[in-house]
Amino acid sequence: MLDIKYVIENLEIVKENCKKRNVNLDLDYIVDLSNRRRDLLYNVELLRKEKNEVSRMIGGEKIEKDLIERAKRLKQEEQELSKQLEEVEKKLLEEMSWLPNILDPRVPVGGEEKNIVIKEVGQVPQFDFRVKSHEELGSSLGIIDIPRGVKLSKTRFYCLKNEGVMLRWALTKMFVDNVKKQGFELVSPPYLAKKKTLYISGYLPFAEKDNFKIEDEDLSLIGTSEQSLLGMHMDEILTKLPLLYLGESMCFRTEIGSYGKDNTGIFRVHQFYKLEQLVYCHPDESEFWHQQCLENEEYMLKELNIPYRVVLTASQDLAPAGSIKYDIEAWFPSQNKYREVTSNTNIRDYQTRRGNIRFKIDGTKGFPHTISATGFCDRLIIALMENYQQADGSIKIPEKLVPYMDGLTAILPKEV
């Protein structure tokens, strides 16, 4: 959340920021609400002060009755103004919650077409046979079962099986081994979280349509462990920075609005497994940790020798909480293009302000910055499958992943 003082003092900057992000908000109304809140708060304090003075005077012999009546009237007026103040504060918070983060100056302005490719790494593989999609490979190798996932649940669900599960374990272990050396703490949080937790992350109110809400409960399935890792520290004062977390969880999203996109395979689904890097750091160190998390993401693609590119996302392709974001897109031979497999966002103090998460270290205090970056998600499995497919329908295991696969060097077609 933005600081209301910053909004008022930099109103034109905030208006221009909303324009760049294609967000339509009445900023003048927000300022008006803030002014009304200020005036009401001032008047409430005056009434309280006068009421307290009158209360101290009660007890005299001649005018006690008049003072009691006056005290009752002041109490009633205070209650009425306090109610107005509460309503204005609630409305102001609601309006402020829709304000997006301030963009980093490096972010290009526009939609997805304005994304900038920072670099490309690796050689796109050439095949002398018909390239299969991960869906076709998964079915023939018995490692992805979409029909039965749909049967037991509904569309956009699947069962990961046999060596497919082993690939998930192996890839997560490879990532964990790398970041544990940097001091990342492993966390397996609850998959259900309160509305306030989702609000802190900036997931709500913006992504309400993607939220799997539990009926008659103040609980929802998390869309990413980032939400839980933020909820852990709501209303706390941190005395140590940085805090480095690696959350592991299933993630749940309704994907409303994505119908017609990626209908085949398991690229876009309602449930998937993910490792999430979440860093709390001093504001002076947020750029460093943003780049470090990006290096951690690139590490995996480099170790696996999967072609990829790093993309700086444009203003309208950036989630409202983000200030600047890099996506890593891996090469998918069956689609003949790069597709996103990880994302990495510097969120500055937007989330910590929403969650009242502060730091106080060596006499300095403030709101820490947060970095949220994918470590691993199931899309990496299918990128590996497609890039390492062989002419006989098997999948070769990348050399550096073999030790994590118990020495398995290939996934072979199942005998019929």
From TrEMBL:
<dbReference type="InterPro" id="IPR015866">
    <property type="entry name" value="Ser-tRNA-synth_1_N"/>
</dbReference>
<keyword id="KW-0436">Ligase</keyword>
<dbReference type="GO" id="GO:0005737">
    <property type="term" value="C:cytoplasm"/>
</dbReference>
<keyword id="KW-0547">Nucleotide-binding</keyword>
<feature type="binding site">
    <location>
        <begin position="269"/>
        <end position="272"/>
    </location>
    <ligand>
        <name>ATP</name>
    </ligand>
</feature>
<dbReference type="GO" id="GO:0006434">
    <property type="term" value="P:seryl-tRNA aminoacylation"/>
</dbReference>
<dbReference type="InterPro" id="IPR042103">
    <property type="entry name" value="SerRS_1_N_sf"/>
</dbReference>
<feature type="binding site">
    <location>
        <position position="253"/>
    </location>
    <ligand>
        <name>L-serine</name>
    </ligand>
</feature>
<comment type="pathway">
    <text>Aminoacyl-tRNA biosynthesis; selenocysteinyl-tRNA(Sec) biosynthesis; L-seryl-tRNA(Sec) from L-serine and tRNA(Sec): step 1/1.</text>
</comment>
<dbReference type="InterPro" id="IPR010978">
    <property type="entry name" value="tRNA-bd_arm"/>
</dbReference>
<keyword id="KW-0648">Protein biosynthesis</keyword>
<dbReference type="GO" id="GO:0140096">
    <property type="term" value="F:catalytic activity, acting on a protein"/>
</dbReference>
<dbReference type="Pfam" id="PF02403">
    <property type="entry name" value="Seryl_tRNA_N"/>
</dbReference>
<dbReference type="Pfam" id="PF00587">
    <property type="entry name" value="tRNA-synt_2b"/>
</dbReference>
<keyword id="KW-0067">ATP-binding</keyword>
<keyword id="KW-0963">Cytoplasm</keyword>
<dbReference type="InterPro" id="IPR002317">
    <property type="entry name" value="Ser-tRNA-ligase_type_1"/>
</dbReference>
<feature type="binding site">
    <location>
        <begin position="253"/>
        <end position="255"/>
    </location>
    <ligand>
        <name>ATP</name>
    </ligand>
</feature>
<feature type="binding site">
    <location>
        <position position="224"/>
    </location>
    <ligand>
        <name>L-serine</name>
    </ligand>
</feature>
<feature type="binding site">
    <location>
        <position position="276"/>
    </location>
    <ligand>
        <name>L-serine</name>
    </ligand>
</feature>
<dbReference type="InterPro" id="IPR045864">
    <property type="entry name" value="aa-tRNA-synth_II/BPL/LPL"/>
</dbReference>
<feature type="domain" description="Aminoacyl-transfer RNA synthetases class-II family profile">
    <location>
        <begin position="167"/>
        <end position="398"/>
    </location>
</feature>
<dbReference type="GO" id="GO:0004828">
    <property type="term" value="F:serine-tRNA ligase activity"/>
</dbReference>
<protein>
    <recommendedName>
        <fullName>Serine--tRNA ligase</fullName>
        <ecNumber>6.1.1.11</ecNumber>
    </recommendedName>
</protein>
<feature type="site" description="Important for serine binding">
    <location>
        <position position="374"/>
    </location>
</feature>
<dbReference type="GO" id="GO:0005524">
    <property type="term" value="F:ATP binding"/>
</dbReference>
<feature type="binding site">
    <location>
        <begin position="340"/>
        <end position="343"/>
    </location>
    <ligand>
        <name>ATP</name>
    </ligand>
</feature>
<keyword id="KW-0030">Aminoacyl-tRNA synthetase</keyword>
<comment type="similarity">
    <text>Belongs to the class-II aminoacyl-tRNA synthetase family. Type-1 seryl-tRNA synthetase subfamily.</text>
</comment>
<dbReference type="GO" id="GO:0016740">
    <property type="term" value="F:transferase activity"/>
</dbReference>
<dbReference type="InterPro" id="IPR002314">
    <property type="entry name" value="aa-tRNA-synt_IIb"/>
</dbReference>
<keyword id="KW-0175">Coiled coil</keyword>
<dbReference type="InterPro" id="IPR006195">
    <property type="entry name" value="aa-tRNA-synth_II"/>
</dbReference>
<feature type="coiled-coil region">
    <location>
        <begin position="64"/>
        <end position="95"/>
    </location>
</feature>
